Every structure is written in C-alpha cells, then in structure tokens.
Amino acid sequence: MRTVLMVAEKPSLAQSIAKILSKGSCSSRKGLNGACSVHEYTGSFLGQTVRFKMTSVCGHVMSLDFIGKYNSWDKVDPAELFSKAPTEKKEANPKLSMVKFLQVEARGCDCVVLWLDCDKEGENICFEVLDAIQPVMNKPQGNERNVYRAKFSSITDTDICKAMEHLGEPNRNEALSVDARQELDLRIGCAFTRFQTKYFQGKYGNLDSSLISFGPCQTPTLGFCVERHDKIQSFKPEMYWVIQAKVFRGKETPITLDWDRVRVFDREIGQMFVNMAKTTRDALVESVSKKEKAKQRPLALNTVEMLRVASSALGMGPQHAMQIAERLYTQGYISYPRTETTHYPENFDLKGTLRQQANNCYWAETVKALLAEGLNRPRKGVDAGDHPPITPMRSASESELGFTEVMPWQGIPLEEALPACERGDAFTVEEVKLLEKQTSPPDYLTEAELITLMEKHGIGTDASIPVHINNICQRNYVTVESGRKLQPTNLGIVLVHGYYKIDVELVLPTIRSAVEKQLNLISLGKANFHQVLQHTLDIFKRKFHYFVDSIASMDELMEVSFSPIAATGKHHSRCGKCHRFLKYIQAKPSRLHCSHCDETYSLPQNGAIKLYKELRCPLDEFELVLWTSGPRGKSYPLCPYCYSNPPFRDMKKGMGCNECTHPSCPHSLNSLGIGQCVECETGVLVFDPSSGPKWRMACNRCNVAVHFFEHAHKVQVSQDSCESCDASLVMVDFHKAHSPLLDGETQHTGCVFCDAVFQDLVELKHATMRHPMHTNRGGGARRGRGRGRGRRPGGRGNPKKPKDKMAALAAYFV
DNA sequence: GCAAGGTC
After folding, report:
1. CA pair distance A614, A616, nearest whole angstrom
2. Cβ neighbours of residue A619 under 8 Å, at least 6 residues apart?
3. Contact status, residue A406 vs residue A338, Cβ threshold 8 Å
4. What are the pLDDT digits (tens) for A77-119?
5. Contacts of A715 (CB under 8 A, 6+ apart)
6. Which pLDDT value is given to residue A772?
7. Can you give the pLDDT at residue A337?
8. Cα(A277)–Cα(A273) distance, rounded to whole angstroms?
9. What is the CA radius of gyration of chain A?
10. What is the model's pLDDT at position A769?
11. What single DSSP character describes residue A54?
C-alpha cells in the first residue's frame, strides 16, 4: 500500500485535521522530537486505498542568519551586511530536530499533502518541508505528481474534506516573497542595530541599554509612543468658558443644564451670554427629544482583541497575556488562543459551549436565562481561515485559576437621570454662572491603543505584536506606567527625534508597508525575487550610508541626555599605550576607556573588576585587572588589551590570563595551571593567587573550583610536575601555629591529586555536575601545563592523562 | 550582542 505523508503547521492542527479526515479513527503516537505527533489511518486518496500519516512542524523549520564569520561585531563593517555578507538557513529550533523528524517520517512515503496555514508564511514553510523530505521520499514514477497542497479556510468537516478533494500545488512565488522579507529584515535590522549600538556605546558611558536595536517593526512601534509624547509636550493649554445653569421645579432636586453651544474661547462673549441669561428667572422647555442608545454586540474574540482587553481591563501586558492564554488552552479552559478569526462557523455548537458554563458560580444565572430564551447568532465577523474565535471550553472557578476577574468593561454607563418633562414645562433658574476651564493635553498612549495602531498600520502580526512591544520595553526605550500607559524614555525619544532629523522614513509606519508592497509583487509573480531584493537592499544601503554620514545630528540630541564616556567612570588601571589611567565604566556593558587614545576595551560581563597589584602584561604593558563574578564566584586576572586582541594564535577573544599561553609570564596558564579539570573536557584548573587565605584553583572553562590549604601562609605553583599524573606540583608554606603537617613542619611540596600529605587538605566546591562523575572520558585536547617535561613550542604542554585520577578525586567531594 | 516570522 502506498503511503501519503501530510504536514500541518502545528501539532494541534494536525490532530484536528486527522480526526476529521479519518472520521475519528486514527491512531496517534509521539514523534521523535516529543513535540509533534503522528496520526495514522487508512483511507482513499485519488481513487486508491492508501496509508495516511498526518503530522506537523512547529512553525518555521528554518531561519535565516549570516554565515559565522559575519556575526563578529568587531571584525565586520555593518555596511557589508547589505550585500557582501552571505546568509544561510539554519534550523529554527535545533532542539526540535525538525529536519530529522520529518525525514524519519517521510522516508518511503510516496506522496506528500501540505496542510500548512494558508498564508504566505505557510507557503514558505511548505518549501522548507519539501527541502527536508524530498531527498528521502520515494521518487515518483514518470511524470507523476507527488506534491500536493491543501487549501482550506476553516477547520470544519466540510471545508477540510473539500480541500482534500481539490488539492493544488504549493505557490513558489508566495514562498519567495517571504524569503525576500526574511533577508531584508535580517540585513537591514542587523546593519542599523550594530552601527547604532557601537557608535553610541563608544561615545557615552551611561546609556541605559546595552543594545540600541533598530527594526522595521520595533522602530515604528516606538515611533507611535514618541509621537504621542511629542503631542503632550507641545500641547499649549487654552482657556475657555462654559455657562452652567441650575434650574428646579417645585420641590424636585435641582438639575444642572449643559449649554448647547458647549463653550466659547472668549471670556467677554461668555460673560455677555451669562448677562443675557440672567435677565430672567424662568426657564421654559422648548422641545423634548428621546434617543435610544444601544451598543452593538461585541465581536467574537481573536488574539489581538484579547490582548487589547487583557491590557486595558486586566492591566496585563501582551506577552504575559499570551503566556496565560497558552496555559488556559493546554489545560482545556479555552480554545486555541492564536487566531485572527472573529467569526463562528455556521455549525458551531453555541448551545453546547454555553451549557458548559451553566453552573459557573459567577454567570450561571445569565447563562441559564440565555439557554431558556434561546440566543441570537453571534455577529458576523471575519473568517481568516485559521481557528475559530477564542471560546471558553470549560467552566472554571476562581479557586481553580487564581487570577481571573470578572470583566465589566463592556457596560454602558447609566445616563444621569432626568425628571420627566414636556414641551412648555417651566423651571425656575436657581443660578447661572460662567466657568473658566482649560483644554488638557492627551495622555500617554495606552498599550491597547498601541496595539490598535500597530494593527491598523500592519506593523507585526497577531503573534509578533507582543514581541515588538516587549522589545521596546526591554531595550529601555519605553516604560510601562500605571494604567499600562507607555512612556518613552530619554533614549527612546532621542532615537526617534534623531530619525526625524536624518531620515523620517526610518521611523514611519509606512517603511513596512512600502516594502510589503514590493514583496507582494513577488508573490503575485509580477516581479522577480532577485530584482526586488536587490532594489530594496540598494535603497536601504543608501539610507544606511546617509544615516552613518548624518549620525552627528542624532548625536547632538544624545549629548544632551547622556554623558560622554570620558566623563563617566572612575580612573582605574593604566593604559599600556599612553600610560595614562583608563576609565572604568560600570554601566552595562562594562568596559574600560582610554580618553587619551580614544579606545574602548571590553570586559567580561556579569562581574566586576579590581586593580591587580599594579602588575603589567609583559606583552603590551597594560596593567592587569582582576575580574570577579561575585563574592563567592570565580576570579582571574586579565589584560584589557589581550582580552580583545588575543596575543597568540591558539587564543580566542575573551580570554583572561588563566587561558593565556604565554610561555613565561608569571600570570599565565602556563605558570599557574595545575591539572586537567575534574569535570569538563577542555578546562584546566588554574591556581588563583588572589584567593588567599582561602586558597583555591578554579577551572578556566567551567564552574569547578577546588579549595585547598586554608590559612596557608603562601601557596605557589612549582616548576615541577607529578611523576604519576603530570599535574604541576604545589608548594605550600603554613604558619607555624596552624600547620596541619606532622612534626611541626611548615613547608611541603606535592601533587594536589596524588600526594598523601595533601589528601585531606583539598576539597572540591562549586561543582556543577554537568555530566556524571564516572563517565569514560577520552583524552581530549588539554591545555598546557605539565611544565618541565614534554612542553611543545608555543607554550603548550602535553600532559598525560592521570592514571587513577577519578579514584583520587572521589575523596575531594563534599 | 543584531530583525521578524512561525510556534512549544
């Protein structure tokens, strides 16, 4: 029997579609990646009986990135990212091993039916799937077709079956338009982000973001927030006057009347009207009109609307709201929360859905009444063809969820009650006065308003809108204030105002729609992929160069809000070039800066540096600094210059003295390295001379630290190495009073791994067990110590693997 | 360390 593979965009859809097509008779199993399932059944396909295998991917299989060497921020000029830098497709989520999973399932299949979402992204994923599976599928015979595309507009029995009967082909052009979008976003976003970040980080010491990102979605999103900020700032309050009259009838409570002219901006005129009104004490009802107000029934809920409501009614950010919604979905309380659809299918079981809620402690009465009276069809919404609107599936109580609230956001406020009156009724005027008021500025943009603006301008999608909002918060461009109002920070304002000055298109929402127009031509087959890509990249490359050339005008704004790097930070160690003091900038990313040489030197993050006894690197004369990750963490000296400019071929960027292969420097790995790390493959335990009196050695790769010889007076790494394990010997000098050595001895030299005298004076701490202790480790490349014998040129040692190291170390564990 | 788009 032939086998037909079918692939949907996500596991939930594969399940629903398989259930419909197999009429509920499929058998299911988990795939090798644990995330996707495979549903199998026998059925008829193009007049033949076949075995169906329905499975899914999890969104995109691949994602686009630059090839490795173009990911270095220091070595690559951002301008090269527009054309020169090659890109490659990498697996989007390596943990899912999606390519392997698809290949395992597709091997030996004869046909494939692609059930990816019916949008451009889905079309693109079709080809990602085909690229993965076609090499392992059975080859079609002759001119036979073996690739089919199902086009469906909703997940209903009729629609799915209809799609199966009218299979088409995947649309290459639509897929290509997505490829173009990916490449444009990558090249443009990364080029601008790297340039801005490096430029401003090199100039200012107190920027409150370690990354100054730019993107065709996130930047316009920020733009909306700053636009509102500017309106608030430039707002000039204006005086205006209103007339207020109070009238009463008999013993009824007086009522306050509004003026049908509302207000005047001229006090004199207002006063004139008041004077006229004051000429009489009687007020006459001229006419009575009644208006009935009704609010339209709300539309069924889709993702974006849910996010808006979560923000405005529950004060919950979109990212958080999505997390909660996903949890409610997996626990069966609501239907699938990612949908653009606001229309219930005709055969949707509204009553059944409602019945689920009939015993809910909050709305049982309402629900029962609705069921008894019968209900109206919901308002007709939009069917985007993805999932039904978000619907409660199960009744829940507050105690089950803990965080729900009843949401009365839809109510219409009751109008102030007016006494019944008719034409000709007379009232007595109690008072007429002129009120002085001021026009007031608009408020900051609420998150809900921002979501609306983004949706309106096509910035992001329902799935990515929360990500963009989250991005501009994380980059410290805006802060979320009470009432979920988004207030731009100085940094956010300066950036947007800078774009206004240099190239307003960089921040306008049209930047996205203009590009999308071009992309649309590709998907319609009216334009060539390469031409559009080249043309658009060319435009943005020019924009980029203009931006780089004009950066000074953004910098003028930056200067006002931030302090130059030379004026920030504290004097620290000395520069090896000019021998003046470097400044230590603690703000992230922490770094050292020489204002004389105008050079910035990066440092390891998530820690702090101290002066290190004014010792200097023998290679470049920079003063060494001691980096520590915290009071109980590891510490090692480093040379600020070597850290960014590795001095030896076998060193990489970001290495401290504990990894330095200098053959004779007293601070290098060669002088202080003791032995191979007890846990990781490649690390070496290096003596930390700054650790006394709680002496220790620490791995230069992983978190292992070995404490030894507490209270020793002096600890030194000897030139000689151990006969049996090749570790460097250690010389220890104890205080007379505290010496643990026998016979009043104060000095001893031996191997920390093998020496019997040292056995009880060494203990392993901070050991993160990355793999079990007793694994069979091959003799991987180990870095040099083993001085005194077998040393190779370039300072690399060639230590033998200790014979019985594991047994010796068992005693060290606490 | 970058983008935006899928989804877990």
Report:
1. 6
2. A639, A641, A642, A647, A662, A665
3. no
4. 999 999 999 999 999 999 999 999 999 999 999 999 999 999 9
5. A687, A689, A692, A695, A708, A709, A730, A731, A732, A733
6. 32
7. 83
8. 6
9. 36
10. 34
11. E
Question: Nearest to residue A209, comparing CAs of A472, A588, A494?
Answer: A588
Q: How many residues are recorded in chain A?
A: 814
Residue A641 corresponds to which amino acid? Y
What is the structure's pLDDT at A403? Answer: 41
Distance, CA of A116 to CA of A14 (rounded, Å):
10
Cα–Cα distance between A265 and A283 in angstroms, integer?
A: 25
Query: What are the strands, taking DSSP E only, across A400-502?
Result: 426-438, 445-446, 478-481, 485-488
Q: Is A514 helix (H, G, I), strand (E, B) or coil?
A: helix
Task: Please count the CA atoms within 13 angstroms of the CA of A607 that sit on its side-chain side.
Answer: 19
A336 is catalytic: yes
- CB of A63 within 8 A of CB of A89? yes
Q: How far is the C-alpha of A40 from the C-alpha of A125, rounded, in Å? A: 22
What order of strands is seen across the sheet that includes strand A635-638? A608-616, A623-628, A635-638
Amino acid A792 CA to nucleotide B3 C1' distance, rounded Å: 46
Which nucleotides on chain B have any atom < 7 A from a protein Cβ? 1-8
CA–CA distance, A138 with A106 (Å, rounded to integer):
9
Closest CA to A179 of A539, A528, A456, A541: A528
Give the separation between CA A527 and CA A522, rounded to whole angstroms.
Answer: 5
E-only strand ranges, A252-302: 255-257, 282-284
Query: How do beta strands A147-149 and A239-248 pair?
Result: unpaired
- Rounded distance in angstroms from the CA atom of residue A668 to the C1' atom of nucleotide B4: 44
Residue A22 beta carbon within 7 A of nucleic strand B:
no
Residue A546 DSSP symbol: H
Which two three-digit tokens encode residue A517? 């127009």
How, if at all, do strands A255-257 and A48-56 pair?
unpaired
Helix-then-strand count for chain A, H and E: 21, 30
Dihedral in degrees, nearest 10, Cα atoms A455, A460, A464, A467: -90
Sort strands A591-594 and A87-91 into parallel, antiparallel or unpaired: unpaired
Instruction: Provide residues 92-121 of A with CB closer than 7 Å to any strand B atom.
Output: 92-93, 96, 98, 117, 119, 121
Q: What is the pLDDT of residue A528?
A: 95
Nearest alpha carbon to residue A185 among A73, A87, A77, A67:
A87
**Token duo for residue A197:** 């970040």
Question: In the complex, which nucleotide's C1' lies nearest to the CA atom of residue A465?
Answer: B4
My answer on whether omega of the bond before A589 falls inside 30° of 0, hence cis, is: yes
In Å, how far are A17, A18, A34, A340 from A11, measured between CA atoms? 10, 11, 11, 18
Which pLDDT belongs to residue A796?
A: 36
Q: Check if residue A219 sits with its Cβ under 7 angstroms from strand B.
A: yes
Question: For chain A, which residues score pLDDT lower than 70?
Answer: 330, 398-399, 401, 403-418, 764-814
Query: Which chain A residues in 66-85 sit with Cβ < 7 A of strand B?
Result: 66, 71, 73-74
Would the Cβ of A197 be found within 7 angstroms of any atom in strand B? yes
User: How far is CA A761 from each of CA A352, A690, A711, A738, A745, rounded to the nearest angstrom?
Assistant: 73, 19, 11, 13, 15
Instruction: Please state, in angstroms and rounded to a whole number, the distance separating the CA atoms of residues A566 and A355.
Output: 69
